[in-house]
Amino acid sequence: MTNNGRTTTNNDNEIERNGSDLGRDTRRRQVTQRHYDPARDGELTTAIVFAVAEAEGVSPSEVTSPPLYDSVDVAAIEDAFFGSESESEPRRGAGVVEFRYVDYLLKVRSDGWILVCESTGVDPS
Amino acid sequence: MVDDPTRDDDVQSGSESVGAERDLPSREILELDHVYEALGHSRRRYLCYTLLERAEWSLTDLATKIAAWENGVPEHAVTGLQRERVYVALYHTHVPKLADDDVVTLDESTETIVAAENATQVLAALEGMGTTLDSNQETHARGEMDNDKQR
């Protein structure tokens, strides 16, 4: 299986600099955003793919190659940010996970916002 | 403290070997990570249930069945959007994971999944727990197929 989806291993410094102000990244143009609603979307994977589809102007089922699974463990992000809350209160920690998927830099924030940005200007290879 | 080395002979001469086997599951049981990984999500369990009935499925048919089950509607009443949400999750997460663990293989050109090497082991585990943990899921996965035949 080819692995065109790349995680941002060689881009850690950039993430650190940008990570503090969630999503406000002036160097990359945001293409689209979508709020993850577990009741509507079900899994986080679905919400991410729907956001990518909107960015590409195609239907979600046309976002096929490669699978997100080759880029990042979405289930782990879902667990970390949206998984098993304590009995009544949601977790309060704020955070963001960034990863590359095809031509985009995706950010998943703990408040549920998924940001799809163009990842121009950074050559991961 | 109670383990007196001098008593070893007594124990070993008796049922020690049998006892050890009873206390410690076999290596095959302990190394079932791929089984638990495979069955660690309700959609993957449902997918595996459908493999009990038939070893080959198109992703679209699977997505329809799962959407019907999750939304509590018959398959013909599943909307395109409901199906697409499930389809996308199957394609991008669950099927690649099951393929990683050699439970299924995906034919990219036809978008069909086929049971693979480890499917037998996973399905055996699933059948074992199906009676208690997921009887509703299993009943639905099989019942829908019976309904299809009757239609």
TrEMBL record, chain A:
This is Halobacterial output domain-containing protein. Residues 14-25 have a biased composition (Basic and acidic residues). Residues 1-12 have a biased composition (Low complexity). InterPro entries: HalOD1. Residues 1-40 are annotated as: Disordered. It comes from the Archaea. It comes from Natronococcus amylolyticus DSM 10524. Residues 43-116 form the Halobacterial output domain.
UniProtKB/TrEMBL annotation, chain B:
Coiled coil: none annotated. Residues 1-22, 132-151 are annotated as: Disordered. Residues 36-113 form the DUF7344 domain. Residues 1-10, 137-151 have a biased composition (Basic and acidic residues). Pfam families: DUF7344. InterPro entries: DUF7344. This is DUF7344 domain-containing protein. It comes from Natronococcus amylolyticus DSM 10524.
